[in-house]
Amino acid sequence: MESGFKINRNDLEQLGYERKILLNVNNLIDGMRQDKQKVKIGQTNYKQEYFPGFSIMEWDSLFHEDIKINGYTTKPIFAIHFMMEGSTEYAISNDKTIISGEKNNLWSLNAGYIGYCKFKKNIYCSSLGVIIHDKFLYELTNKYPDLLSEVYKKHLKGETFYLSKDHLVTSSEMNQIIDQIRNAKLMGRVHKIYSEAKIIELIALQLQQHVCSSCQIKKHCNRQYDIDKIHEAKRILLTDLDNPPSIQELSRKVGINEKKLKYGFKEIFNQTVYGSLFDHKMTLARKLLLDTDKTIVEVANECGYDYASHFTTAFKRKYGVSPKKYKNIC
């Protein structure tokens, strides 16, 4: 059984859901906005922050039924989208695509956009998106013509397109920038300028990866079979944070040798095996600190740390502040 609801506002920045399923993220206003909804079909956490020239949106959801969201817009939209966890199916006009965790894309939707996105039941989904307003996009294109001229021209013509049909891999550098954007409030009065600079960095990395992907030769994972095995290895690695497998155990479970496993992580995720595990733990820790009332000890245990002091050291190395201070500031 699949439930559905519509987005029927003129702009995807202003989300509206039918009241019949009791999900209320209506009438967004300027400034910081955050809605946490627990409903019969599941739970969502939607946060949006407006800046001059762009809007940053964070979405987390866990539905108990398959959900389909239909939507349209009467205004053209230029956006970047990063799927952090889970998997979502999108359809824009007649073009369908599935974007999963650790993937991202840049896309343009024309003024006649009609489409949908689907969420599978019992799959936690987390994403971050940035909508770039037309005036700001024009200013950025004039400032960085070599970077943006091609995609801006297509957007200006009213084309609906993805930058990459197969989606881009979210690198460790991109993940670091996303963490910096999420924690930009720690920068105080300059956090808006800081966020703007980081968004430009993200777009630059996306475009750079897109250009390089066509000419990049993978030395160790040059078959789809090998790539699938590396993704399977990452899923297994992140399943049990208390007792993560060794590289030897992991290679045996997925059926590839240790060398291919280690080099495959670097080629596909631009991270080491345990670097991926560390980043996942820190992302989970940040979410638990922000969205729950768990103590530092409880968060440490849930993230696979036996000692809160070890967790605090790791968290501070990642984010520059202690977990306690981070929870109080954010």
Tell me about this structure.
The structure is a single chain. It is built from 11 helices and 13 strands. It is an alpha+beta fold. The strands form 2 sheets. Strands 2, 3, 4, 6, 9, 11, 12 and 13 form an 8-stranded antiparallel sheet that branches. Strands 1-5-10-7-8 form a 5-stranded mixed sheet, with no helix packed on it. Helix 9 (296-302) crosses helix 10. Residues 1-33 have low confidence and may be disordered.
Please summarize what this structure is.
Helix content is 41%, strand content 26%. With 330 residues, the protein is α+β, with helices and mostly antiparallel strands. The protein folds into three domains: 2-213, Jelly Rolls (Sandwich), CATH 2.60.120; 218-270; 276-330, Homeodomain-like (Arc Repressor Mutant, subunit A, Orthogonal Bundle), CATH 1.10.10.
Note the topology.
Elements: E1 2-7, E2 33-39, E3 42-51, E4 54-63, E5 66-72, E6 77-85, E7 87-92, E8 95-100, E9 103-109, E10 114-119, E11 125-132, H1 134-143, H2 145-156, E12 161-162, E13 168-169, H3 172-182, H4 191-213, H5 224-237, H6 247-254, H7 258-269, H8 273-291, H9 296-302, H10 308-319, H11 323-329
Parallel strand pairs: 1-5
Antiparallel strand pairs: 2-3, 3-4, 4-11, 5-10, 6-9, 6-11, 7-8, 7-10, 9-12, 9-13
Helix pairs in contact: 1-2, 3-4, 5-6, 5-7, 9-10
